[in-house]
From TrEMBL:
Name the UniProt record assigns to this protein: 2OG-Fe(II) oxygenase superfamily
Limits of the Fe2OG dioxygenase domain: 325-453
Keyword list, A-Z: Coiled coil, Membrane, Transmembrane, Transmembrane helix
Family designation: Belongs to the alkB family.
Membrane-spanning segments: 12-37, 49-69
PROSITE patterns: FE2OG_OXY
Pfam families per the UniProt record, alphabetical: 2OG-FeII_Oxy_2
InterPro entries linked to this entry: AlkB-like, AlkB-like_sf, Oxoglu/Fe-dep_dioxygenase_dom
Signal peptide region: none
Stretches of the chain forming a coiled coil according to its record: 72-134
């Protein structure tokens, strides 16, 4: 029975086994197929993606190369600028150090001068003391003389210096010989045997060289004599003239005696009088040669920049100048030592006409131009449009342009460039031009050709001063 059942069930179980095997095989095949498909698709997608990236990379290569080159140039320029700035800083530092050194040397010199002055002062004080003592002694001697005593008997006496012909005071109290030529020159030395007033008395002795006093005395004498002559000629009654002459002499004596104050006044007035006299002589003698003209230009120093002006009046009126200079006058000449610039300015609107030419010679430079936004730039009637330190124009709110001015080049400023843009030259020794750095030469000289407005020319012709 069992065998029978086994025989009947066996085929069914075999069928079941085959069926399960088939199902599993199909499932496995499907899975393998699916995995293979996925792999193939992934591989292609990856391949496409890589090709795409490669293509993009390849296509953008020139652009990226150009950008890299540009960046490199930019970096190089920045590096250059930084180097220039560094050089300028080093130079400024050096200059500051030099200035400090000069200032320190000046200080030393001033201290030395101060010391010398102090020493001189001390010497003067001791000399004054000495002179006072001598004066006292002389007073004593004089009083002794008045009392009938001779000077030779006293401790101090005067001798005549044979070589110089001047009196020397031998002061035995001090144990030394001190010489006071100017002190005694005008005095009447009692001990001088050749002196006509040998036995006379010193009435009054002037201190120090006193040319003004002598001049004053001569003036008084002259005035007195003049008045005597005047009276003589005016009065017909001759006998009265004697009285007048006497009166005049009295006046003269009175004037001489009261003239102790004259040296002080003369001392005060002498320098101005001498200056006026020298000027007068200068005008009279060399006036025709030395009058300011084109051969005597005025040199003005603005910082380290030197500007040479010519006399505009002469320039305007000289036709030969007009022939040589189209503006009708000689141009100011600016001299810039290396490293020296020009502060931002607009040439005076109210004095010069529209066209301004600047001829560069000797060395190159970069002139920069600034334009400030509307409302900040100076009014055309302003006389000098320089920017001062506290000016609102010092803000960085402006447009900037730069022009390279090689030697023997001419710059023309007109219109907006003339009226609305400030021009200036930086204070530095090296100028960047593109990627290059141009070192300034030891000096630059420029000639500014500007035509004076007619009203200014007329004003100049009316006045003696022809310089603006
Ligand atoms: O030096 C120069 O070229 C310009 C001088 C100047 O601007 C001036 O004299 O006003
Ligand atoms: Fe200027």
């Amino acid at each position: 029975m069992t065998n029978m059942v086994y025989l009947i069930v066996k085929p069914f179980s075999l069928v079941q086994i085959f069926f399960l095997l088939g199902v599993r095989s199909v499932a496995l095949a499907t899975l393998v197929f699916w995995q293979l498909l996925k792999l193939i698709i992934n591989f292609h997608v990856d391949l496409c993606w890589h090709f795409l990236i490669l293509g993009i990379t390849f296509m953008t290569l020139p652009i990226r190369m150009l950008t890299a080159l540009k960046n490199e140039v930019k970096l190089e320029r920045l590096l250059n600028e930084m180097q220039i700035q560094l050089e300028n800083l080093v130079w400024e530092n050096k200059e500051l150090e030099e200035r400090l050194q000069i200032a320190m040397e000046d200080r030393k010199v001033i201290e030395m001068i101060l010391k010398e002055i102090e020493e001189e002062h001390e010497k003067a004080v001791t000399r004054i003391d000495l002179l006072e003592n001598e004066e006292l002694k002389e007073e004593n001697m004089r009083s002794n003389e008045v009392q009938g005593k001779t000077l030779w008997g006293s401790k101090s006496h005067y001798e005549k210096d044979v070589r110089s012909g001047e009196s020397i005071l031998i002061d035995t109290d001090y144990g030394s010989t001190s010489m006071h030529p100017s002190y005694n020159r005008r005095g009447l030395s009692l001990s001088d045997p050749e002196e006509p007033h040998e036995k006379g008395m010193i009435i009054w002795e002037a201190e120090d060289p006193c040319v003004p006093l002598v001049a004053a005395l001569f003036t008084v004498v002259g005035i007195s004599l003049g008045s005597v002559l005047e009276f003589f000629s005016a009065i017909r009654n001759r006998p009265a003239s004697d009285a007048v002459a006497l009166l005049s002499i009295n006046w003269f004596i009175l004037g001489t005696l009261s003239s102790r104050t004259l040296p002080v006044i003369a001392h005060m007035l002498a320098p101005s009088a001498i200056r006026i006299a020298v000027q007068l002589v200068g005008w009279l003698v060399v006036g025709s040669v030395a009058t300011p003209n084109s051969q005597h230009p005025t040199v003005v120093r603005v910082g380290r920049r030197a500007i040479k002006f010519h006399d505009h009046k002469n320039d305007i009126t000289t036709s030969s100048d007009r022939r040589h200079h189209p503006t009708g006058r000689r141009p100011p000449v600016n001299e810039y030592p290396c490293g020296v610039g020009l502060s931002p300015h607009i040439d005076t609107h109210s004095a010069f006409d529209e066209f301004i030419f600047s001829l560069s010679t000797a060395g190159p430079c970069i002139m920069e131009f600034r334009r400030y936004p509307e409302g900040t730039w100076c009014h055309p009637t302003a006389s000098v449009n320089e920017i001062h330190e506290d000016s609102p124009l010092l803000s960085s709110n402006f447009t900037r342009k730069a022009i390279f001015l090689p030697p023997r080049s001419m710059l023309l400023m007109s219109g907006e460039g003339r009226y609305a843009w400030h021009h200036y030259i930086r204070h530095r020794k090296v100028d960047p031009v593109g990627e290059k750095a141009i070192r300034r030469s030891s000096r630059r000289v420029s000639f500014t050709f500007r035509k004076l407005l007619l009203c200014i020319q007329e004003k100049l012709l009316q006045t003696d001063f022809g310089t603006i």
